[in-house]
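Usage

Read records sequentially. Each one opens with the input sequence:
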Amino acid sequence: MTDFPNFFSKTFFLNASECNAQQIIPLPQLVQRLIDTATLHSSALKAGPKELKEMGLTWVLSRLTMEMDSFPVMDTDFTIETWVESINRHFTERAFRIKDNIGNTIGNVRTIWIAIDIIERRSADITALMSHVTPTPGVCPVQRQSKIQAVTNPDLIRRHRFSYCDIDFNRHVNSTRYIETILNDRDVEFFDTHSISRFEIAYLNEIHYDDTVEIARHSDGDTSTVEILRDGTAVTRCRIEYRSINA
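and closes with the structure output:
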């Protein structure tokens, strides 16, 4: 087996232009930085987008679970560390640790990635990549993703159409656009008094340009469950736990 780096880290500077109204990094932007870091590490492992493209495949984020004590703040550095916890012929589990500008861990993330055939848009076999990766299990403190239930008694339902700027290089809706759409159900005053402590999302099916979806949300105290449906079929499910900033 060829020796590849097990751990990878990348430091970012959070500019004011990247911040939200609370002067911290917005969750969709943070998730994009996680994706960027994962891409850099997979490329270093010779299992990145270039290698998959040669196989007629592409990586797709399938599930993400994040637990945050706090978020990176404006005009500071933050560091994302990542490693692969497991890999098999169907999917790979990748974990992340987020640190603030003085090295304190402020968040941990667990993700699942699958490779899909670019033409058929179906899950593909990644056995050929397994020798490129040395898993490091048991480091991430976040429990493995639980099943997110369907929303059966929504307190909010609205429709949304995805357009040109939502589409990425895979020609489907970018992972972060789902998150933006979900969080936009809340107003800015809510986020003045609440912070996300745990965020789970499961990407069940692809959404494409000009798709119109229905977004259903059920809130129970500090927890919200959100489902995005297209023609009555769930394409994404999400669970969010909030904490009071003043608590």
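Summary fields computed downstream for this record:
- The two ends are 51 Å apart (CA to CA).
- The mean pLDDT is 92.
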